[in-house]
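Course assignment 3, question 2. Fill in each field.
Student: A.L.
Task: Predict the tertiary structure for the chain below.
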Amino acid sequence: MVSRRRGALLAFAFSLGIAFFGAKQACGQQTKDKVQAYDEGGTFRITLDVPRTQQVKIGGEIDAFIWDHWSEHRRGKLQIIGQTIEGQVKVQKIFIEPDDRGHWHMRDEEEADVHKGTQAAPAKTSDVYDEVRRIDIDSGQAIPTSQKRTAGTYHLLLINTSKGAQWVL
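Answer field:
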C-alpha cells in the first residue's frame, strides 16, 4: 500500500514538474511572440547626402507608417538615421505600442553622437507621446481622424500631455 501511494505521489510530482516546465516555456514563448508582434517599418536614412526631394518622400513614408499603426492600434517600430548640418549623427527608434495599462503611445528613443571624434559616450534620450494627430502640410490645420489622406500631404503632431510638449515630425 505504501509503495503504491509513493508511486502515485512520484507520478503526481513528475506531472507537476512537466506542467511547470511547460508553463515556463509557454511564458517564455509569449514574451518572444510579444517582441515579434511589432510590424517592422524598416530603417530610413535622412542624411546630408540624401537629396531634399528624397528626404521629403522618406518623411511621408515615415508619417504614413506611424499614422497607420497609431490609428489602427497596431504595434509598429522603425528606425531613422539622421544627420545635422554640423555632421552629428543621430539614431531614432520609434515604437507605436500600448503601455502597461493598455493606453496607446509612441515611444521615441534617440541616441546622438554629440562628441564626434572623442571616446565620450553618445547622448541618449527617450520621450513618450500619448497623442498623435495629423496636420495639413499647407494650412497647418488638424485633419479629422476619419479622413483618408495620402502620404506627403500631412505632417504628424506628437503630443506629450503630461509634459505639455509637442513635436512636429
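Instructor remarks: The radius of gyration is 24 Å. Confidence is low (pLDDT under 50) at residues 1-33.
Grade: pending
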